[in-house]
What does this fold into?
Amino acid sequence: MIKKIDWYIIRKFLGTFIFITLIIMCLSVIFDISEKIDDFISKGAPINDLIFKYYLNFIIYYSNRFSPLIIFISVIFFTSKMAQNTEIIPILNSGRNFYRFLRPYAIAATILTIFSLFQNHYFVPKATKERLAFEEVYYMVSFSTSNKYYSISEDEVVYFNWHESAYANLREFRSEKWNGLELSSILYSPRADFDTINKDWHLIMAEGRYIGDTNDRVFQGKNIDTTFSYVIDDFAYRSEIYETMTYPELKDFMVEEAKMGNPTTFAELEMNQRTAFPFATYILTLIGVAVSSKKTRGGTGVHIAIGLFFALMYIFSMKISTVSATNAGLNPLIATWIPNFIFLIIGIILFRRTQT
It folds into this structure.
């Protein structure tokens, strides 16, 4: 049964979280405007779209992305205030143990975790898609990719050395067709231009070879117009593409990428982070209570400093595990959850020390 003191802590928890989120988002919007305002003005971004298609979705994305850390700071801030005002000691002296004291924190953390899970998998991707679409029109700088192999089908492989999103072409383009384990043809061009209107390809200084037991032949051509089963957008996309997909869309995307022989590490990391980050709310809440529930000489400032140290360590561990997954072959599921398990152990140790 939820008592008055529970409601008091829950209101403190949620109220502080909303307050800090609003402050951080206001500052983020101000800094973002100062950085991008020249581009928005020069490209004539409509004020209505700027507010509702960009900055509204900007706030939705970043407030949810950093919610575990904002929750952590919120818990430390209001719990430390309660400790400095000697509110916690009477609660514990009334017969409640520390585990009972944690109940309202767990309830508030559960509310925020469930909300964040839904946001991460369904609502935020749609908001991100709209925000990025706005950026591509009014702000987007070009992005590039290099040295890529794509399995178009079971019998066709495409390679290119360089592609930049600002230009609809592939450099050092090569297409290989296979008959089982035997190479049947090769097509090479230093530059393959894609016609975005007619959806066909223009190969410059192309050369190719048809391979057979008795009828090998080689051909060359300065300019060759042809069509393929793929378009330029199939070969390059922004790294944020994973963040624009809802859970079902991301699952389907990973299946299609696997069929084409493309790595799915980043997509798997995105999928697992959407779940791991919200559950970090419980762990960071536990650490926050353990750090800030005792009155100290330095007051709230000391608690916040300690909390920021743990927050930075958590971010650092997430970065290390992500790099391990992308560069060292660590399973994305394990890489995503390792920081949570490490800090869960730290949280349990700190909590037990607080009880003594």
